[in-house]
Amino acid sequence: MDGVTPKFVLPETFDGVKMEITGQLGMIWELVKAPVIVPLLQLAVYICLLMSLMLLCERVYMGIVIVFVKLFWKKPHKRYKFEPIQDDEELGSSNFPVVLVQIPMFNEREVYKLSIGAASGLSWPSDRLVIQVLDDSTDPTVKQMVEMECQRWASKGINIRYQIRENRVGYKAGALKEGLKRSYVKHCEYVVIFDADFQPEPDFLRRSIPFLVHNPNIALVQARWRFDW
Length: 229
Prior knowledge:
Blueprint: H1 12-72, H2 76-79, E1 99-105, H3 112-120, E2 129-135, H4 140-154, E3 160-163, H5 171-179, E4 190-193, H6 204-214
Parallel strand pairs: 1-2, 1-4, 2-3
Helix pairs in contact: 3-4
């Protein structure tokens, strides 16, 4: 008797109750469908059409703007005065403004050599260029590596300064601001900022600084970024 599985028998009235509930649900659906569901679906369709129309208008507008810019917008060298700064035998390097290059860093073990090397290789008179490496690294090993790299370039005649600070107040912006407080910065006329992984071309300053020199109304020059993978 212990091994017998009990069997449950549903009364025949259960099927009738189930059919009745199903029928009532069907009636409710028919009552709600026409006055509620259909209008909501129609509203959703209209909203989608409106959004599609807005998207189309935005694409058309952007297309017109792009065509206008391509055809009529003057390129920077045509909109602004640009005259290359030439070497002068009489004036020597004094014809070039003094430029400060700031490179903020924070534990940049993999890329610190890239920006330091690129900045040290800029085509600009060495006595008119100051490179400032602002190291906020918390890893002592990385700090030592960055400092040694700066010393290596300094031994080659590059005017490069390695700067650290007691805290990281303001993070990158704070490091840049702190760097501007150094006494040797006072005679610098322009400031250039490179991230730790930037690799500017040697002629970067010769292509950008003249825009600032010959256009007093310009306070900032933003160069295009190019990613090499």
